[in-house]
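Renewal narrative, Specific Aim 1. Our central claim is that a sequence can be written position by position from structural information alone. The example that follows is taken directly from our test logs and has not been curated for this report. It begins with the structure tokens describing the chain, in the order in which they were read.
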């Protein structure tokens, strides 16, 4: 028998808690220790936390979990926390069996621990997938977490009794399919469908309080039809490719840029109007300063940009993808009407 299975390293059984809690935990420990001895691919664990506290600890972890994290039982909580890249939830529903993926980054995860703990307490269960970056490993690994939550109000203790399953191959296959299915072949940027998912996820993050605001941009190439008519569609394609490269090189790591369709592009960034205008102007000025060349001939290329923040929509109504696109498109039209090669982030009074 593995040493850590015979030695108790938790806090509850030696912490003066109620007989009810200690008895229940002892029953769970016996069951999960027996499961761990079966050398199953399922990794059992018991996590615990005080009802209103941020600190989580483990009353039991499976042997394989220790091997994956390469640590001792007392170090599991901290090593696991430091290894997380993101946590993913999948929401199923609707007549079309649509699946929504909600991604919470490590910073968002640990910045809102209390809120997340309240969510799992209310739901009575946990079902998510963690992406981990572990020291000494070239690739990330993925662990699916499924657990039930049991609350002991008298002790102000919550238990999460669950199991982890490695799903790295499945998630790598999913990412590969998305790479081939969701990226525009010409510009190599995410397609409109992916950008829409990014916005949908961040609308959810906004409602949950994970972020305070975000900005959505629509960009259109000025006089693009003249480029195609004068120099041919190959020249137009070259402009689209070069423009995508310029914008990708200009954006920050936390920003997103995609191809909306035709000569229109879209972009997303977390932050308010000031951040959005700065982002838009970085893109616009970078395009303006770039020499777009086709057959040794310079093509004058500029972009007009319309943008909207989630907070602007919140003042007047519901925040939806459709409304974000509608308002950004209206402001893009204003930028065109006002002379092109400019950014509009507010409606004229």
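The sequence written for that structure reads:
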């Amino acid at each position: 028998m593995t040493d850590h299975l015979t030695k108790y390293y938790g806090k509850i059984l030696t912490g003066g808690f109620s007989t009810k809690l200690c008895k229940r935990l002892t029953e769970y420990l016996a069951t999960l220790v027996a499961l761990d001895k079966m050398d199953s691919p399922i990794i059992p664990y018991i996590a615990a936390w005080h009802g209103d506290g941020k600190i989580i600890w483990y009353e039991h972890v499976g042997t394989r979990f220790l091997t994956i994290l390469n640590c001792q039982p007392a170090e599991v909580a901290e090593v696991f926390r430091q290894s997380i890249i993101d946590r993913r939830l999948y929401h199923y529903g609707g007549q079309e069996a649509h699946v929504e993926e909600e991604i919470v980054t490590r910073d968002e995860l640990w910045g809102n621990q209390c809120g997340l703990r309240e969510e799992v307490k209310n739901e009575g269960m946990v079902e998510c997938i963690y992406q981990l970056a572990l020291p000494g490993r070239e690739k990330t690994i993925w662990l699916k977490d499924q657990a039930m939550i049991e609350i002991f109000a008298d002790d102000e203790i919550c238990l999460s009794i669950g199991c982890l399953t490695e799903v790295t191959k499945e998630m790598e296959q999913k990412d590969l399919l998305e790479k081939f299915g969701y990226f525009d072949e010409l510009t190599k940027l995410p397609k409109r469908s992916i950008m829409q998912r990014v916005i949908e996820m961040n609308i959810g993050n906004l409602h949950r309080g994970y972020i305070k605001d975000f900005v959505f941009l629509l960009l259109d190439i000025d006089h693009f039809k003249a480029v195609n008519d004068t120099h041919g569609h190959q020249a137009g394609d070259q402009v689209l490719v070069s423009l995508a490269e310029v914008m990708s090189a200009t954006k920050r790591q936390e920003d997103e840029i995609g191809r909306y369709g035709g000569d229109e592009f879209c972009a997303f960034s977390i932050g308010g109007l000031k951040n959005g205008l700065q982002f838009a102007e970085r893109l616009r000025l970078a395009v303006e300063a770039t020499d777009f060349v086709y057959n040794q001939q310079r093509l004058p290329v500029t972009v007009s940009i319309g943008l909207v923040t989630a907070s602007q929509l919140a003042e007047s109504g519901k925040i939806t993808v459709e409304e974000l696109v509608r308002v950004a498109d209206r402001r893009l039209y204003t930028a065109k009407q006002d002379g092109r090669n400019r950014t509009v982030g507010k409606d004229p009074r």
